[in-house]
# Entry
Amino acid sequence: MSTPLVLASKELYLSFVHLASKRTTKKNNKIVFLLSFPTASKLALQMLYENFPEKLVICYTKNSEKLATYYKRKGCSVYCIDNFSVLLKDIIPIVTGSDLVFCDNYFAFLAGISFTPQTKVVQLWHANGAIKSFGLEAEYTKKVSAQDRKRYSEVYEKFTHYVVSSQKMADVFAKNYRQKINELPFGYLPTDLFFDQDWLQEAKEQFKSNFPTDKKIALYVPTYRENKTEIPLDFSYLTYQLGDEWQVMVKPHPHDEALYENVWNEDNVISDFKGLELAQILPSVDCLITDYSSVPFEYTLANTKGKIVFFCYDYEEYKSEVGIEDNFPYWAPGEIVRTEKELIAAVQKPSKQNFESFNRMWNGYAQGKAQKQLLEWVNKVYDN
# Structure
């Protein structure tokens, strides 16, 4: 829980933002993109730059500097959100004066912005679906001060539209943010790739070129746990038990240094993907092993004949500390296991999974046309 000093500093931060925003009276014709998840936002930025190169302004967090710099070289204006003086002097006036703002995450400073009723603030969330709770429904949020929750709500209130892949995800946003959701039913933009047969074929060929094997591929992609607990997996034992039929791959979260160190020296485990992004790997994965990550919502489109095993060794603990979406065990598109022994058996079990009902629930709007539909919507915003 925030201390009185921390709460006061947050209030002071927002008071400066609010003052800078109120002083902005000049409108502009810019499209602002608030960037913090470069992989998830790459396609959206590409589409916006190709169609509105002179209007696009990118405001980024430090972890997204590489992608922002790429567009800076192309002539876009880019600003770092983490620099407070830049935030007040440059970013706040541009964001306040814009008629169209895209966000790929929660950005705290939005609570202090005074938008006009005409401004569209679009949430391009960095995940296609949700297993774990977030926003006001997360268990850890329920433990913060009322003042903190009020600030969170002030950010959520700024979002006017949500690009979603399903009514289910719109309902999840409504519940977790406690807001009425004005949905844009286009689909999660990165899923467009999985409807492009040429792209799928190229991705499979790239994977095969980098990892020439006839073994089945088992990919472990766990969610990031801030309160780290050691994963109860012995990778040497796991690979031994799975035998020559399977090649085990592990893709830790970028911030999970402990898991990187754990698997780096494992002779029979691949954790270096030679520059391939997760989306390029998924079409070649025979069995996805995960837990509360959002990867399954993409994998079920990337590989409709694949298999998912949910290794939820800390299910009860995670449910009480973070929260898990309602009825997850009933709609999960794969077996949920708790122990290493159960995991090995589930991976080896012949696959009989069918993702059709899951995709109807979570990917009903995803038809491979999300970028096109979003572009048409942006053009209508400017036409009006």
Summary: Residues 4-22 form the longest helix (19 residues). The CA atoms of residues 287 and 307 lie 5 Å apart. The longest strand covers residues 31-35. The chain has two domains: 4-187+367-383, 192-362.
